[in-house]
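okkk here we go again. third time trying to get the NAP bound version out, last two times i messed up the smiles copy paste (missing a bracket lol). double checked this time i swear
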Amino acid sequence: MRAVVFSRYGDESVLELTERPSPTPTDGEILVEVMAAGVNPVDWKHREGAVQSDRPFPLGMGWDVAGVVRATVPGGPAVGEAVYGMLPLPYGGAYQELTVLPVSAVAPKPARLSFAESAAVPLAALTAWQAMEAAGVKAGTRVLVHAGAGGVGHFAVQFARHLGAHVTATASARNLDFLHRLGVDEPADRATADLAASGPFDMVLDTVGGPVQHQSWHLLRPGGTLITLPEPVDEIHRLPGITAHRIIVAPDGEALRRIGTLIDSGAVHVEVQSVLPLEKAAEAHRVSAEGRVRGKLVLSL
Ligand SMILES: NC(=O)c1ccc[n+]([C@@H]2O[C@H](COP(=O)([O-])OP(=O)(O)OC[C@H]3O[C@@H](n4cnc5c(N)ncnc54)[C@H](OP(=O)(O)O)[C@@H]3O)[C@@H](O)[C@H]2O)c1
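finally!!
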């Protein structure tokens, strides 16, 4: 099968499109023919060596897939069924024609989405979903999502709105209309907005890290929750009375089934900035690493 792999950590040039043996499912796993693979920042962080694997090189790449079941397990989806899912961290293997996933990590592909759009969903949407659960977001919660136009952010603002929260989200000026269309109550220009004037917030989702995490503590009300994604909580900046933790996304087929229902009902929009052929994996990494993607990048197979 064709697969994008890498044999040492480094820049985009270490990615190699090559022929690899097809994977064989083990207990509880299904074999999926990959039609599209989602691209996430963790992909190029993995390639750079920030997320290391205990498996030998060459290593597979990517965690998000949409495709067709080619071998299944009792009680699993039927052979020929269209599914989407997230591979377990830390072993990538989405940028390839065939992959194996635990049956518990997949759900039926949302009917209204293409394979490419479906592959944009799992890791980013599950992260946003698990962040909402971790913070107990519900009707009336005041939520601030940093980078609301990004992969995780655009799902987070829509899930929060669906739960009845009041949502403020940051983006650059060119993305404020997009945030408005997603239902954000208060789109905030990240260069100029006075976020303290929109707060205090019950929950802040930090998708950026560094100074954004530090600033976030002061935007929360006592009893509020800070969820960080890119980095652990920096204890030096901790303020009393605020719950703060980093979450690490986990595969969850049941949550993907519920997210798919929201997508098919029209309640959640999936934004795909561009779809590139598998051969352009290096270009997709370069664009993702620039940090300006609106929604998601996807590779088609
Ligand atoms: N812990 C976990 O399990 C987990 C899971 C998923 C993601 N993550 C991490 O979370 C981060 C976000 O992931 P993602 O997939 O959402 O990334 P992404 O899609 O690449 O984010 C791109 C967006 O970030 C915005 N942005 C860039 N710098 C910003 C800033 N200083 N302030 C506000 N917005 C900014 C850009 O919007 P504008 O151009 O409009 O500014 C762009 O739309 C990454 O570091 C990723 O590795 C962690």
